[in-house]
Amino acid sequence: MNKRLVLAVVAVGFLVSLAGCSMIFGGISDEELDRDQEYDDLRDREADVAVDIEGGGIIGSGEFRAVYDLNETEELSMHRSNIYRDEALDIHSVRYWYPNGTELTGSELEVDQSRSSTEVRVPDGNGTLAVSGDAGSRTFQLPAYVDGSYDVTIPEGYRTSNLLFGDVNPGGYERDIVDDQERLTWDNVDSTVSIRFYRTQDIPLFAGLVAVAVLLGGAGIGYYYRQVKRLEEQREELGLDIDIEDDDDGPPPGLR
Fold first, then answer.
1. How many helices (H) and strands (E) does the chain have?
2. Cα(186)–Cα(193) distance, integer angstroms
3. Which of 161, 141, 233 is nearest to 203 (CA)?
4. Rounded CA gap, 114 and 79, in Å?
5. Residues 113-135: pLDDT tens digits?
6. Please, are residues 174 and 184 in contact by the beta-carbon 8 Å criterion?
């Protein structure tokens, strides 16, 4: 009886482990693939790839929307790289348009996700693909799944131009500000797009914090200096500071 119980527990544990693996690597649900999203503004842009980044809060992450003119690309392997390995890009609100404008939702496409990548296959490599996913609250990084011209807008009120707070890669881009929104364009991108941006209010805030730190540091140094001087004066009053001059005037008078 005990042996049967042990075998039953092992079998149940094995099934649970399989279910857990399928939950982790079983792909993206149809509900996520078919979530509502607006892409018309990005489809109207002239670039091969149009991306819009929406900022997050201090703690929460942001989101991006991207539209790709596939240019004879029938399969995209979508991932992000970190220090250790490539990780699958979690996407939602997937849409595909045939060259004639017919639209398919994400659940009507072949979308397979593994630990290292999300594979998206489309029926016609000359169509247009749109996806959405997570972005950092102050950073954005996305490999160039499709080579060509890129048009990227960062959140309204944010900038990349300050060398201390902002950064854009690759180089060779043009920067424009339209309605308080920064827009970055490249004629051709074939590597990862990496952007670090900041709120325009962050710079005066940072400058104020630095000024406060400098004032506090100066006050601390002044206090320390006054305390040292006070201790020196007290030692002198108590006769503890005796200067011993090393003047060699010879032996004492009785021994000369």
1. 4, 17
2. 10
3. 161
4. 10
5. 999 999 999 999 999 999 999 99
6. yes
